[in-house]
């Protein structure tokens, strides 16, 4: 029985031959054609190019299997910093003087119920400071986000970041607040564009779906949203977002405010 003679080719020669004939991407049919032209076994060739396999019967000379594994691993990687490592309770400022609707704001935060609140007033009158000091007095964590016209979903919800040469998912401030059950303070919300419409489900109290990593984040008990503005809703912010908040422009009676014993009505679907 005559044994067929097989031409010996190095790994580099096989790779260069495939590249020159089929480019950087090729299929099993291309490999079989290459084997026929060079009188070499199919299994011999595929074994030498296994690092470049990207699918069944598919190879890419610019994408190694190691690179594919790294991409898949980074896709499901945890946040850069676990949410439990930082203490976000602000410090009490001894110079703070209660004013305006501070008592209302404190009652809302103390209730730990979801009661999104929109605060409007002149610039520099302490809207943000009042919310921060209410949280400080109640020892509640607060995540403050300064909104500009450039603020978008990546800034708020999160995205992939390059850390030590690897791409990992990093939670945005909204996700941090949701998972901690913290107060989310959207400062100067009237400067925002329609890029912050990604917050609509959050302002409805329904959490948010992280489509880039396929995970749904539900609000932890105690989570609430406060938004501040100088223009009484006449800025860039859409009416749809403002309608999802409760204005504290006018003083509210104690009977109207939530407390730890209050049960808010269920939203109608």
Describe the structure.
The chain is α/β, with parallel strands linked by helices and 269 residues long. Helix 5 (102-111) packs across helix 6 (127-138). It folds into 2 domains: 11-66, Recoverin, domain 1, CATH 1.10.238; 102-256, Rossmann fold (3-Layer(aba) Sandwich), CATH 3.40.50.300. It has 10 helices and 12 strands. The protein starts with 10 loop residues before the first helix and ends in a 22-residue tail after the last strand. The longest helix is centred in the N-terminal third of the chain and has 12 residues, at 11-22.
How is the topology of this model organized?
Layout: H1 11-22, E1 25-27, H2 28-38, H3 42-48, E2 53-55, E3 58-60, H4 65-75, H5 102-111, E4 117-120, H6 127-138, E5 142-146, H7 153-156, E6 158-163, E7 166-171, H8 173-180, E8 183-187, H9 200-203, E9 208-210, E10 215-217, E11 224-229, H10 239-242, E12 246-247
Parallel strand pairs: 4-11, 4-12, 5-8, 8-11
Antiparallel strand pairs: 1-3, 2-3, 6-7, 9-10
Helix pairs in contact: 5-6
CATH superfamily assignment of the largest domain?
P-loop containing nucleotide triphosphate hydrolases
What is the total domain count?
Answer: 2
Strand proportion: 15-25%
* Cross-sheet strand order for the largest sheet: 5-8-11-4-12
| Structural shape | rod-shaped
Tell how many strands the DSSP assignment holds.
12
CATH architecture assignment of the largest domain: 3-Layer(aba) Sandwich
- Name of the level-1 CATH class of the largest domain: Alpha Beta
Please mark out the parts with pLDDT under 50 across 5 or more consecutive residues, or reply none: 1-5, 79-84, 246-255, 263-269
Largest sheet: 5 strands, parallel
CATH topology title of the largest domain: Rossmann fold
Q: Helix proportion of residues, in percent?
A: 25-40%
Radius of gyration: 29 Å
Mean pLDDT: 80
Element pattern in H and E = HEHHEEHHEHEHEEHEHEEEHE
Spatial gap, N to C terminus: 79 Å
- Structural class, judged by helices and strands? alpha/beta
Count of DSSP-assigned helices: 10
């Amino acid at each position: 029985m005559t044994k067929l003679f097989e031409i010996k080719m190095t790994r580099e020669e096989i790779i260069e031959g495939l590249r020159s004939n089929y480019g950087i991407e090729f299929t099993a049919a291309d490999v079989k054609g290459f084997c026929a032209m060079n009188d070499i076994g199919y299994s011999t060739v595929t074994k030498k190019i296994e690092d470049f396999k990207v699918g069944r019967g598919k190879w890419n000379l610019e994408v190694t299997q190691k690179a594919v594994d790294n991409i898949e691993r980074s896709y499901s990687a945890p946040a850069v910093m676990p949410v439990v490592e930082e203490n976000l309770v602000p410090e009490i400022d001894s110079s703070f003087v209660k004013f305006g609707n501070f008592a209302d704001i404190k009652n809302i935060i103390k209730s730990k119920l979801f009661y999104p609140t929109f605060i409007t007033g002149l610039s520099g009158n302490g809207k943000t400071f009042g919310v921060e000091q209410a949280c400080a007095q109640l020892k509640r964590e607060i995540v403050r986000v300064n909104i500009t016209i450039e603020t978008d979903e990546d800034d708020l919800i999160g995205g992939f970041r390059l850390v030590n040469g690897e791409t990992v998912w990093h939670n945005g401030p909204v996700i941090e607040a949701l998972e901690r059950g913290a107060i989310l303070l959207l400062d100067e919300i009237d400067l925002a564009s329609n890029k912050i419409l990604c917050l609509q489900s959050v302002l409805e109290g329904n959490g948010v779906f992280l489509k880039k990593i396929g995970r749904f984040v539900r609000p932890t008990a105690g989570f609430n949203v406060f938004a501040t503005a100088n223009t009484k809703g006449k800025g860039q912010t859409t009416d749809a977002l403002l309608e999802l908040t409760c204005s504290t422009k006018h003083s509210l009676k104690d009977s109207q405010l939530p407390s730890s014993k209050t049960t808010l009505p269920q939203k109608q679907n």
